């Protein structure tokens, strides 16, 4: 093997310029593969992290996935029963016995939960009216499952405990109605239930619609306004491991009978788009290495043409066809290994440089750096793909060289 390796090295150094051009192609291919992959994977993980942090991991609502079975269908399950024009009972909506269900959820390890009553209300101030979403919350529980606590520009979530007649509104709503901390407004909900509430907190989430239409009050205040005593219509859950949300949601839906939606289910469309985006990204960056492999094919093909007589002499001296095949495959492997190592170093430098680039997205208040993912998998994939490309590119000229017949070469037939 040492002799074959020495012959391969001699071939590569005899045409140093062509070898360096092929090597440069592999280095740039690996480096760009790594840089683009790190940037795309980093942006995907950053997006998913923001998605997980800003939305409930599981939401249990007072709805059912399918309509309740009727008594006739339960009594005669195999009969041809058709029931038309079924009208649901007119009842107070909400999750029944929510205190018991809350105790069950709180007992689950790694789960934080908050009960919420969500309804619609009309905000009145200075002769102006606007429909808003009214959420009744328990501040100490809501703080554990919501990003809201970090978004306050005045007041805090705990202000609702200090002033039970308080309300928290978004920054856009405050600006629209010229409200500030301490302002009083009227809220109309339910069947003309009216309360005068004092603004005790103003938040700015960055979502214009959310900041203009979302308001928060104490849970008891919301139950009185919406005329749903001892009722809630939503549980918000945050998990220590967000990726267990789908299994736990299915388990809770079976146990409670209410619809439980995990963040994975709610974001399926977005996550599917990320998979397609990754396929496109890997196809594009892999094409760079495929193009680089054509350079290696051209270089080794040239070696075979120029070294035809040398190959004939080697075979005349007793070298087998597989030895000749190995020599030219070694040439491709040497370029692949060196190109991978140097490409990984250059790619890491590019990743470091990209990670230092600062950007301020439209609508954002803070400057952030480009998200870069430093996972070991992409280094392994880049090196392995480059090495396989080099071996594949060198195989055809290597096979051609191994099939040369020394007598034909020495006679000048090839």
UniProtKB/TrEMBL annotation:
Pfam families per UniProt: FtsX, MacB_PCD
Topology in the lipid bilayer: Multi-pass membrane protein
Domain of life: Bacteria
One Gene Ontology term, aspect cellular component: plasma membrane protein complex
Domain MacB-like periplasmic core stretches: 19-254
Transmembrane segments: 20-40, 279-305, 325-351, 371-396
InterPro entries xrefs: ABC3_permease_C, Lipoprotein-release_system, MacB_PCD
Protein name stated in the entry: ABC transporter permease
Record organism: Chitinibacter fontanus
